Amino acid sequence: MLWLYLLCTAFAIAVIVLLAKIALLLRSADEIAIGFRDKLEHDTNTLITISSSDRHMRRLAAEINAQLRLLRQERHRFAQGNLELRDAVTNISHDLRTPLTAICGYLDLLKHEEKSEDAVRYIGMIENRAEALKQLTEELFDYSIVTSFPQTSAYEDTALGSALEQSIAIHYAALLERGITPKIDLPIQTILRRLDKMALSRIFSNIISNAVKYSDGDLHIVLRENGEMVFSNSAKDLTPVTVGKLFDRFFTLETGSGSTGLGLSIAKLLTEQMGGTISAEYADGKLDVILRF
């Protein structure tokens, strides 16, 4: 019986040692998980530390720290590149505005001069392209402003339905010019959200302008009772791949002449600054831009 007692005792000791080892490993795993999450959420130079002396867990922590160093270097490189790009966009848009203003001014003066029929036609073409270039320049400048300065405007209760109707009214002429008769469905009750009205108007404007450029002749806007807004239009030239890039800055379709590709990118930035989400879905030739606050 003595040998059985000794065997049970040895087995119990082994179990206790193993449980203690497992507990230490679990604690180290938790320390690594918490440290990893903290390092990703905060831009800090500190590394993951663990209390365990187990060589396997310490090697795991060391490998993760090595990857964190590389990730931090890439993050800083991206931030620097993004800053340089933003500064370049700001400078370019600013440099273009002055000569464009002069061009538009001289074109206005030319309108009052005697001209041949051909000259009138050529001036009209120049005006049209100058106005398009002016809009592109303004879009570049707006993008640099949105990305450079955080939104500090005071939020206020905003009726989403009324804001939608106002945006449709502003773009109604442009929609009709493209043969688009917009349809809007609003719930009976007023849907309120605390938002920056100016930013919300800009979001709606950019989404509707996108529909003006790419719609095949329709636009249907639905505001649901939960505050979700869906902007739908036919767009046979799109594909699921291109739809996935619609919110990427500077992405444009071949049909998007006169576009910087910043409209929906600005809409996304403003939406996220106000705590909302914006996404796009494509099926059966129909594009849905979904906005949620």
Description:
By secondary structure, the chain is α+β, with helices and mostly antiparallel strands. Helices cover 61% and strands 12% of the residues. The chain contains 7 helices and 7 strands. The protein has helices spanning 2-41, 55-110, 117-148, 160-177, 197-214, 240-243, 263-273, and strands spanning 156-159, 183-185, 192-195, 220-223, 229-234, 277-283, 286-292. The strands form 2 sheets. It has a 5-stranded mixed sheet with strand order 2-4-5-7-6. A hairpin with a 5-residue loop joins strand 4 and strand 5 (229-234). It is elongated.
Layout of strands and helices, then pairs:
Elements: H1 2-41, H2 55-110, H3 117-148, E1 156-159, H4 160-177, E2 183-185, E3 192-195, H5 197-214, E4 220-223, E5 229-234, H6 240-243, H7 263-273, E6 277-283, E7 286-292
Parallel strand pairs: 2-4
Antiparallel strand pairs: 1-3, 4-5, 5-7, 6-7
Helix pairs in contact: 1-2, 2-3, 3-7, 4-5, 5-7
- The Rg value, from CA coordinates, equals 29 Å
- Give, in spatial order, the strands making up the sheet with the most strands: 2-4-5-7-6
* Mean of residue pLDDT values: 80
Count of distinct strands: 7
Q: Any low-confidence stretches, pLDDT <50, length ≥5?
A: none
Structural class: alpha+beta
Sketch the topology as an H/E string, one letter per element.
HHHEHEEHEEHHEE
Oligomeric state of this protein: single chain
Share of helix, binned? 55-70%
What is the approximate shape?
Answer: elongated
Describe the sheet with the most strands.
Answer: 5 strands, mixed
Bin the strand percentage. Answer: 5-15%
Separation, N- and C-terminal Cα atoms: 74 Å
Number of helices: 7
